[in-house]
Amino acid sequence: MRDFANLGIGLLIFGMLAWLNGRAGSDHLRLILVATIVALAAFLLWDYRESLWRPPTVVALSAIALVMVFLTSPSVNTQIFEEFMALAIGAAFVWLLVWLFVRIAFPRTKAKYEALPVLLLSCALSFGLAVCSLGAWLKAVDLNALPKNAVATTGAELASLWELSWGKRYNGIFAVGRIGEPEKRNATEGGDYLAYYNAARPLGFSADFASLLPSSYVMTMADGAAVSVQGVARRTQTTNWPDCGPYVFQHCLRQGDPVVIWADPGELRALGSGKQSNALNATRVIAYGSLEDFRAGYLARAVATARVFGWIALAFVPLSLLPAFLGWRRWRWLRRHGTDEPSRITITRA
Q1: Do the Cβ atoms of 174 and 265 come closer than 8 Å?
Q2: Residue of 54, 52, 50, 51 lying closest to 62 (CA atoms)
Q3: Which of 23, 33, 197, 337 places its Cα 20 to 30 Å from the Cα of 248?
Q4: Are 236 and 242 in contact (CB under 8 A)?
Q5: CA-based R_g, the chain, Å
Q6: In sequence order, which residues have a C-beta less than 8 Å from that of residue 138 and are 6 or more positions away?
Q7: What is the pTM of this model?
Q8: Three-state DSSP class for residue 171
Q9: Quick check: helix, strand or coil at residue 250?
Q10: Where does the chain have alpha helices with state H?
Q11: How confident is the model over 284-313, as a mean pLDDT?
């Protein structure tokens, strides 16, 4: 009967996720759903506390459900979300090792000579968790500072930013201009596509037409300066591209489209003449539209996404000390109550 109740709750949560997907102004309902998932997970963890594999399974399924709730929000930045999830998956794997270490290895340690290895391994696990948590928190701090990034609208401004030390622009800059050559833009769509990629269809599938994401572009700035721009390789590094392209279900950039590019300022030097020119390297994002559109769209979503992960990471920083604390307790118990059994591994000198 209890299994049927859990299944019913799971189906209810899935239905709520489908209804909330992309729905604006429903954050209060998402918070209620999050509280329901956390409460259900806590109940199941207590109920299955004697099991070895059921608690990790409950935690994994609950984490997936919480991620899905988060992704239903229209304020999520997909690119930033993927970057944080890489750290979160690594931390989850270490926590699984902690669980198995405590539940399997701890009960099997009986001898005094095992005290130090248990303590050292526990501290190593705590160190790995602390690195993941602090890394995610520091990344969130950097992303929350993105609105303060310098903006370049002319070649002269870009050149002055290139002269700054890296420590003053380590988070990149925002360059504003028009992609390609505006004078080549056609009155109607035709051969002026600079880049395009397949968009998701209404049912969530992607079209299988050819896509084009060049390795470099030329951007014209407000003072007429031509800047070489390093391209992007993934569509998650694009934002707000309009519906267009040589095929259906595609987004594209055309000659002369207004763009905002988040990248590092750089400089190119011609091999023959040694002539220097402005450049944008290590491009993070190519956004279609004005700087105001970029700030209200991509940038606002990036900051909101980073803030959520930042608070979670900060909360897990003190929790990362838990394996070391448990290892210390086991070390102390083994030193006091452990057997005098000698180590089965001996080292002899020749």
Answers
A1: no
A2: 54
A3: 23
A4: no
A5: 27
A6: none
A7: 0.82
A8: coil
A9: strand
A10: 2-20, 27-47, 54-71, 78-100, 106-108, 115-144, 155-163, 291-294, 300-319, 322-337
A11: 94
Q: Are 178 and 259 in contact (CB under 8 A)?
A: yes
Q: Which two tokens stand for residue 97?
A: 């090792």
For residue 276 the two structure tokens come to 């220097």
Q: Mean pLDDT, to the nearest integer, of 261-286? A: 85
Please tell me the distance from the alpha carbon of residue 246 to that of residue 258, in angstroms, as a whole number.
20
Q: At what angle do helices 2-20 and 54-71 cross, to 10 degrees?
A: 20
Q: Would you state the torsion angle of the CA atoms of residues 296, 299, 301, 304, taken in this order, to the nearest 10 degrees?
A: -110
When pLDDT is averaged across residues 187-201 and rounded to a whole number, the result is: 76
Give the C-alpha distances (Å, rounded to integers) separating 51 from 46, 59, 101, 171.
10, 13, 14, 46
pLDDT surpasses 90 at 343: no
Give the number of other Cβ atoms within 10 Å of residue 136's Cβ.
Answer: 25
Length of the chain measured in residues = 350
Tell me, what DSSP letter sits at residue 266? E
Rounded CA-CA distance 3/6 in Å is 5
- Please tell me the distance from the alpha carbon of residue 178 to that of residue 224, in angstroms, as a whole number: 10
